[in-house]
Amino acid sequence: MNTDEHIRKWRLILGQESQERFGQMSSEAGLSQEQDLMDQALAAIYNRTESGGFGVGGRGAGNGPSNPQITRWLGDVRSLFDKDLVTVIQGDAMNRCGLKQLIFEPELLENLEPDVNLAATILLLKDQIPKRSKESVRVFIKKIVEEINRLLEQDIRRVVTASINRRRHSPIPSAAALDFKTTISRNLKHYNTELKTIVPEHFYFFDRTSTTAANKWTVILDIDQSGSMGESVIYSSIISCILASMTSLKTRIVAFDTKVVDLTEKSDDPVDLLFGFQLGGGTNIELSVTYCQKFIENPAKTLFFLISDLEEGGNRAGLLRKLDDMKKSGVTVICLLALADGGRPYYDAQMAQKIAGMGIPCFACNPQMLPTLLERALRGQDLQQFQKEFDKRKK
């Protein structure tokens, strides 16, 4: 190990406050990008600020990180350090960041208001939850699931039904498929004053063939479970379960870090699905996209959501090629950089720009926007125009 490597090692050990002194010793001993991530992750846990929070060196401005940042850095720890060190660091995070008392004292969780960011942090540390607290943790997570479900389920079901089940009419008569609203509105001019009723000249019937197995839409949700995606994972899980419960769709739920896990079988229960995620770790998006491609049976009726911060640790060029191939085959491809209620999303802006340049819209949106996005996608409307409208509203 040369002198510069020794300096970098001690700089990581002693933290941001030693930066100036070590910089005077060697101008060539700056931290690499990976070491900088290590430094931020460790600072979030070990650097106490004057305000009582936990800082991130010079970037923290003395205010300490918000809970989503803690979650992201805890996730970074899983990919940056050896397994034994991860156990030690996460244990320290629970003690120093006030998390230990939460997951070791069931009574505290029972009295807490549902909070998505806190839930994401607890899920990140779920392997360390003691047995006596597991049920309280599940109840806490369930409260959040039910709250988000109430917020989104009705709108999602409405737009899917309107876009798929009832968007086209059929010339084939069927009493069960009669479109009463359209039939009445288009025959109002044929109202018979003597009979005091409408005498329709033409009846309208819904096209039910689009809901047969061969013609169903396939919705694939490819969900990044790295540390920065905690809040998005929670929203994505609940939305996935809503979609999976609709017989008019075929829904596939996939989670990935450096490995791919198919969680579709857990879609009956959003709480079980959430506990199936392993938040934190590296990222190989290309691997997951390759896995998802085998579920594309009818590209023109496939909607593919990539929900990720795009911090690709695998083959970046390969990922771009696969997404481009998928889009050119006829698949509707959408990249969700974040599904979060607030705060600036954390993502690779360069990758997002390249993906958007291929005509694939990239959204960092509030979950309440998803039903509208779903409706536009299922109706085959111009999503790039929708993105322009969406970006304009954000400014």
Overview of this structure, please?
By secondary structure, this protein is an alpha/beta fold. 50% of the residues lie in helices and 11% in strands. A six-stranded mixed β-sheet has the order 7-6-5-8-9-10. Strands 1-4 form a two-stranded antiparallel sheet. A hairpin with a 3-residue loop joins strand 6 (249-256) and strand 7 (260-262). It is elongated and about 100 Å long. The protein starts with a helix and ends with a helix. Residues 49-67 have low confidence and may be disordered.
Number of strands: 10
The succession of helices and strands, N to C, reads HHHHHHHHHEHEEEEHEEHHEHEHEHH
Major sheet summary line: 6 strands, mixed
Mean pLDDT: 80
Name the poorly predicted regions. 49-67
- The helix content, as a percent range, equals 40-55%
Round the Cα radius of gyration to an integer and report it: 25 Å
Short description:
It contains 17 helices and 10 strands. The protein has helices spanning 3-14, 19-25, 33-46, 67-80, 83-96, 99-104, 106-110, 116-124, 131-165, 180-185, 230-244, 270-276, 285-293, 316-328, 349-357, 370-378, 383-394, and strands at residues 169-170, 191-192, 197-198, 205-206, 217-224, 249-256, 260-262, 302-307, 332-339, 362-365. The two termini are 50 Å apart.
Note the main attributes of this structure.
395 residues; alpha/beta; 50% helix; single chain; six-stranded mixed β-sheet; two-stranded antiparallel ribbon
